[in-house]
């Protein structure tokens, strides 16, 4: 029997503790560098408001409908970056943004 296990490897934006400021209607890019020797990784971005659980924004292959118009991210596996772009910034975008990646590990039992 074979089993897939997902292992979280990093919360990049959170550990960087960088604060950014922008004016309304600006465009912001939140950086994310990831480090892995794995080749089959999945990248994600989350938004966390104060006293709330993180909310999924997007992954490499999907974006939540509420975020599609203004949030995007494109991965570059050569540079190992997955920056989050927020267009037309609003006051309601003020939050902590987390970048997370998973490696899929294949195991035999």
TrEMBL record:
Keywords: Adaptive immunity, Immunity, Immunoglobulin domain, Receptor, Signal. The keyword Glycoprotein does not apply. The keyword Cell membrane does not apply. GO terms for biological process: adaptive immune response. Gene3D superfamilies: Immunoglobulins. Residues 27-105 form the Immunoglobulin V-set domain. Pfam families: V-set. SUPFAM superfamilies: Immunoglobulin. PANTHER family: T CELL RECEPTOR ALPHA VARIABLE 16, T-CELL RECEPTOR ALPHA CHAIN V REGION. This is Immunoglobulin V-set domain-containing protein. It comes from Cyprinus carpio (Common carp).
